[in-house]
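RETRY 2/3 - previous attempt timed out on the joint model. Re-submitting the same 997-residue input unchanged.
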Amino acid sequence: MRIGVVTFPGSLDDRDAARAVRECGGEAVPLWHGDADLKGVDAVILPGGFSYGDYLRCGAIARFAPVMDALVPAARGGLPVLGICNGFQVLTESHLLPGALIRNDHRKFNCVDQRLVVENASTAWTSDFEAGQEITIVLKNGEGGFVADEKTLDTLEGEGRVVFRYVPDAQGRNPNGSYRHIAGITNERGNVVGLMPHPEHAVEEGYGPSLDGRGFFTSIIKQTLESAATA
Amino acid sequence: MSDTQTAPLLDTVEHAAATPDVEQPWAELGLKVGEYANIREIIGRRPTIAELAMYSVMWSEHCSYKSSKIHFSLWGENTTDEMREKLLVGIGENAGVVDIGDGWAVTFKVESHNHPSYVEPYQGAATGVGGIIRDIMSMGARPIAVMDPLRFGNLHHPDTQRVLPGVVAGVGGYGNCIGLPNIGGEVVFDDCYQGNPLVNALCVGAMRIEDIHLAKASGPGNKVILFGAKTGGDGIGGVSVLASETFDEGGPTKRPAVQVGDPFAEKVLIECCLDLYAAGVVDGIQDLGGAGLSCATSELASNGDGGMQVELSLVPLRDASLQPQEILMSESQERMMAVVEPKHLDEFMAITDKWDVEATVIGEVTDGDHLVITWHGEVIVDVPPRSVAHEGPTYNRPLARPAYLDGLNAAGTAELAKPQTGEEIRAQLLTLLGSPNLCDKSWITDQYDRYVLGNTALAQPDDSGVVRVDEETGRGVAVSTDCNGRFAKLDPYAGAQLALAEAYRNVATAGAAPLAVTDCLNFGSPEDPGVMWQFREAIRGIAEGCRFLGIPVTGGNVSFYNQTGDVAIHPTPVIGVLGVMDDVSKRSGSGFRSDDAHVYLLGTTRDELDGSEWAHVVHKHLGGLPPKVDLAAEQALGRVLVEAARTGVVEAAHDLSEGGLAIALAEACMRHGVGVTVDGLDAIGADAEGNPLDAFTALFSESSARALVAVPAGHAAEFEAMLGDVPHARIGVTGGRDLDVIGHFSVSVAELKSAHEFTLPAVFGA
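RETRY 2/3 succeeded.
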């Protein structure tokens, strides 16, 4: 079970994502932004960070990295891909996922332990959860407001492609102004998932708010093992 | 002679020798007449413009420690052989290094970026973080965490609304983008910092012992490589005086004095440096910070055993119009200088290429004893490097105990009106909880990533930041920074020791054994004998305190001139203590976690309200004498706290400091929403006559060497057996949703939280 973790210049949570893969029983394979080579991995994680500094729109430059030349067609062909935070931004910039991530509505970077509801437990990355399950993982970003036009939002909801929603606070607000409280979405096939919160920071006892992040990694490992067994 | 009218474009050494009488702008560059004369004597002629620029920045207070270093002998005199054994690298290098066991070394240091952060809060704070990270990198370490002790003026002053959000965004913007967890620090408000906010930044790094690198240029023929960002006109400061003399028509005449940070460039530089270290291709390394290339070249050469030759026109520039003296002074960020053996040059360049980091050979180590810098082949600097880097002026400035101190010390809190009833105590507790220094700081700390790198075991608002170093064993470090400037104002010797004691206690409270100290000494003008006396007293307090505790000072920073007109800030010696834990997953958090745990107060409570947060908030009063320093009690308490965490008998431990027991109880309740019933208030403490303390004094006194712990009932006997002669009282039991002080008052945790969390959002917006 080999899961690639891409390092762009400015990736920050790549080591964490690799650790989370190992903690959950997988093998983490480093992938380099400058190589259009996925090294035959079974799945890919685009980690959090500030790729190329993100001085332009977040993810807008990473989208053009050589590794994306290999990743985009592979993802369209069904390779499981998880984009976390900056990785989610790269996925929307690459048009593997719809919508965009904009500056938080309160204009500040925000690092909190965030409650989410899992809405879709049948994607490649969420099958170890139950639909409706509430989890708490880390949210930390400056540009995490998910936006899309009404039609796209309706489509995402209608097709069950909203994977995670923020649990709003007592005033009905979510932590970054995301439309319809959307924290994470998937593509039509359910193999590509992007979300702003960070499951890789919630996999080890004593380091992080919970162990709820493990489900992401155990889901993909199980699924890959199953598909290998049936292949 | 008529050279002033026909000055050539380039002031070479040869030209300087031939034109001894040219008037030079030494005064505008901040040099004193005697210092200028000294430079002429050292080099036997007038300095070139480039040399003058180098000496002026390297002999500045900031770089040369000219007012403070005469007092640094106190460090050495108070460092025992036993303390020295813990030091792998001591004071004087970019940062000190200590051995934390299992072959791991940890380096940490705190520095100030106070003045730039007042002028330009975002970039000032951001580059403060960036600068300290490069210090840590240059020791060979991977940076693993940052902290930021911050001090601002009055929360409600309009200028605080300019400075604070900018500083916080700058600390966060740089730290978040470079990918280092921000695990703690302080936020303090006091009118004395209104025109002089303090922005201190601390970084911790870790490496294997064999990977320690030093800043020295040795081995004639070895290459001097400048790598990282290009050099621009930022941060030139006073040297613009020189620039404006020689600039052609149309050239830029004023340069920004505050540097601009690029955290992405520094993140790449970190990974690049770690690859270079791992490949073993770096012989010596130095970061470029204050005084830029002037500092890096002269310090590397001075620390080595030869000379150095540099061709300045090879320096990659962002702005082609820069003059050589400006290139020497530029404080452009995200640059490093390495000394590399010729046989490793290709490998070095391959690694910098991989990271798209520009690297340029600009010179080499020579077998001479001079630093020689050329500009297109013409010699513009030819000096003994030690004279620039390490042999600057030393001033033994006059010092005198301020005349106001007697009156200040006599005006204690005995006469102040104190709350009499339970209801009055309850009301003042809520007032204090919402006061600027004690209120919830998450509006600030939530702007910092505390999780990145995945090793954070504890962060603000707990007493210490705790990070794992070894992912196999869980071995790691705890760090805390502290200082109560009011105590230091009342008595700088005791105040400095109280800061040391609090940081020591915070680290122990988390469960780590204190190991080493760094300090950031923020003071007013050294030209004021009263300030100089405060400074001397503070250093003496820290040095003697460290000796008593057996933990060495590994390095730090002095920031003078934090004063507006005649009014200086409170003396603010910020102390950072680093401790080590075998397994950081066993650390103690500060909040009550479960019902029915026994709550103990450890340590001795006295009637000590002078300088307290209560006096400050309720009466706007500062006077009297600070709490008694009892370092033996701190040590004994620390041993208990470390042992209790190691054996897992405590489920919460919280240091007592500002606001005393009342605030500690409230904070421990609010952390996880677990209440406490306090029935043992009468059992704690006595006044000077031996009478029991009244409830108010017991709750708000700020006696040192105290901590609050919660122990599950099943562990109580085991815990009590650990206590030895540490004074202790079982004061209550956890549970419920209220802080209930039997016989006095009760308040719900929800009400505590709303009082606590309201303050900063009300000023800065949600």
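Residues 76 and 150 of chain B are 29 Å apart (CA to CA). Closing ticket.
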